[in-house]
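Can you give me the bound-state structure? Components:
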Amino acid sequence: MIEVKGVSKIFTRDGKSFEALRDVSFDVDTGRFISLIGPSGCGKTTLLKMMAGLVKPTEGVIAIEGKEVTGSGQDRALVFQNFVLLPWADVLTNAAFGLEARGVPKKEREEIARAHLDRVGLGGFEKNYPHELSGGMQQRVGIARALAVDPDTLLMDEPFGSLDAITRHVMQHDLLRLWQETATKTTVFVTHSMEEAVLLSDQVVVMDTRPGRVSQVVDVPFPRPRDQDLSDSADYLEFTAELSHKLEQMQRMDMARSVDDRFDRDD
Amino acid sequence: MTDRGTAPRKGPIRRVATWFAKYWVQALGLLLGAVAWEIVGRAGVSPALPPISAVIDAGRELWSSQRFVDAVRTTAESILIGLPPSLLFGVILGLLMGLFRPVEWFFRPYVNASLSLPLVAIIPIILLIFGLSQTTIVVVIILYVLPVVMVNTFAGVRSTDRDLLDMARSFSARRGLTIRRIVLPSSRALTLAGMRIGVGRAITGAIVAEQVIGVLGLGGLVQRLGGAFAVEALYAVILFIGAVGVASLALINRVEQRYQIKEIRV
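Here's the bound-state model for the whole set.
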């Protein structure tokens, strides 16, 4: 279980402080897939990086399986929005990086990495370099790299955010299948697409801005295994539309507030 | 079939064409420079501007003379002694500066000072310490080369992509692995650029130092020929130095390109 307890984060730069998160609390049960969604600036990525141990909360605690997060750990793996592959290393080396960081001997880590590249559909590309792959394929390497270390917790930071619509769709369904096959990894997925969040998640944590906070936690009622049929169903479309509408309103409110802020600043 | 058999096979042909074009344009540039030089020289603008034909005549005699060969050997020797350790330690110190803040703080003032100081000004001091010897010249070469290589390597390390470092951190990668897999490869381009500038500066440093000393190597020869108003021979030496500079940079570019293509494997 991931417990987020009273987490606040204040960034300070050049004497100005920015409240990124205020008193955020929620739990993620082990083995569940949850999405963090909200307008930009709601602190969802900051929260994810806290879970990864890359950012420290100003106040509050994040605990995973009862242990407070104080830094990065071998129980977690992160998938990045912009892939973050080593451009000078081939696909196999990239996919094996997490294992290499854990000190797994070369032969073994290559074998494991190869198996995971096969799983994400990149068998045969081991010797290619990232720049030779499309964005979607590069992110597949990123996912293989994360899965290869067999993490208990998978953290994904808008992994499909920089992909085109069609690739994104394919990737969503491949991830859905992949995750359901594994089905034991607690996953936290940051996104700004409600369709994506509902399709993939058991639970959607909707966040709001200024300061970043949890607005609503929504359980997704659709049973697993899910597939293409779900994303075509009327129930899904209705459910998603309603939540999307709420999110859109939040975004409008946020814009209105930022206009107010601008006027308030004339003091 | 709509193929009219005139499908442009641009690939190899165009590559050869660019290759030719490049050397053609370069040759043309050099030729025009030489022609201009000849015209200005023949016009008799100044006794310090002899035509290139006279320079080459003087050069033919000089380049095969014993004193020229000796001078080249002395200068080359100084560079071969001074350059490799400067490159090696420049890279090592630059890496350490990039990786460890205190090392940066320690060397920063020295590096910045030596990059902005006119080094010519301190050559007499080095001369006083090491005397009229090759040691003086080697020391000057090191002073010319070391800071440039250091500062470039340092910049290379510091320009490492933050996301890549975050990624390594998220996988709890140890420092050694992060350096080997991320910092070193991403600093490679700037490090090589620093080394390339370093080679050019080694030649400059050697000749400037020799000129100040006045007796050793090509710089000494330049000084003596200048003093004797042997203008044609002086130009012949300068032409030679220029040609060596161009050739060594071309060689380094070759090596650099080869290096860039060779990627790192597990």
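A couple of observations. The interface with chain A takes residues 163-164, 166-174, 177, 181-182, 185-186, 263-266 of chain B (CB under 8 Å). Residues 175-213 of chain B form the longest helix (39 residues).
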